[in-house]
Design goal:
Strand order of the largest sheet: 7-6-5-8-9-10
CATH architecture of the largest domain: 3-Layer(aba) Sandwich
CATH topology of the largest domain: Rossmann fold
Radius of gyration: 20 Å
Strand content: 15-25%
Order of helices and strands: HEEHEEEHEEHEHEHHEH
Length: 233
């Protein structure tokens, strides 16, 4: 690999950008491809590379009669939960098994403890401060679970200003309408507020904390694959 290309790859990884290194297995040809640049590669190569990024899978593909190795360098998947409640306990285990790095935010120290959330990153900062430090990106899902507007709204204000691919909030339809009204009064327009999945989770009739966690993770998974699917035209 040329030193210039290696430098660009390392820079992209440091910046947390989803990126793919495309290499011809026969002959010469190597390109760095991300969401905004094709690196000089052919249109077909760029489409294949972005598809591999969306699938989060390095692979060998046939490209215009040649074998092409697509090496994907994606930042880690992250799930941030606001509220160290029973649903978060179940969801944190499921999300970790699915490949997410999990962070639980709750300024109520008695709830967010290592004993209740073993192996999980814990923050006892106020949600907006904690989220700003985390810096949600296109590989981040944010779920608010406290039922406390002071905590959930603080988190949502930062979430809606981020590139997070999923934002969800626990609560009934009535609670969600009130939440949207508060956010609109804070200056978030309707289009921004529509990013919030509320009530959170797929409508599968979930009742228990574990079932609700299943519904949430299912919706996050659905949103992730739909939001990262490459354009077909």
């Amino acid at each position: 690999m040329e030193s210039k290309l290696l430098t660009a790859l390392n820079l992209g990884r440091a910046e947390g950008r989803p990126i793919a290194l495309a290499t011809l297995l026969e002959g010469k040809g190597q390109w760095l491809i991300d969401e905004s640049s094709g690196g000089g590669a052919s249109e077909t190569t760029v489409l294949l590379a972005r598809k591999a990024i969306a699938e989060d899978r390095s692979q060998v593909v046939d490209c215009e009669g040649a074998s092409l190795f697509l090496q994907v360098h994606n930042p880690p998947l992250r799930m941030v939960m606001v509220g160290a409640v029973h649903i978060a306990q179940a969801l944190s285990l499921m999300a970790a098994r699915t490949g997410y790095r999990v962070t639980v935010i709750d300024p109520r120290g008695a709830f967010a403890t290592e004993e209740r959330f073993p192996g999980v990153d814990i923050s006892n900062e106020w949600p907006d401060e904690a989220l700003r430090c985390i810096g949600p990106d296109v590989r981040t899902a944010i779920v608010t679970l406290t039922h406390d507007p002071k905590l959930d709204d603080a988190a949502l204000g930062v979430a809606l200003s981020s590139e997070a691919f999923y934002i969800g909030s626990l609560g009934s339809k009535k609670t969600h309408r009130a939440r949207l009204n508060r956010l609109e009064r804070l200056g978030f327009d309707k289009a921004a507020c529509e990013r919030i999945h509320g009530p959170v989770g797929l409508a599968i009739g979930a009742k228990s904390p574990a079932e609700i966690a299943v519904a949430i993770l299912a919706e996050v998974t659905q949103a992730r694959h739909i939001s990262t699917a490459p354009a077909t035209s």
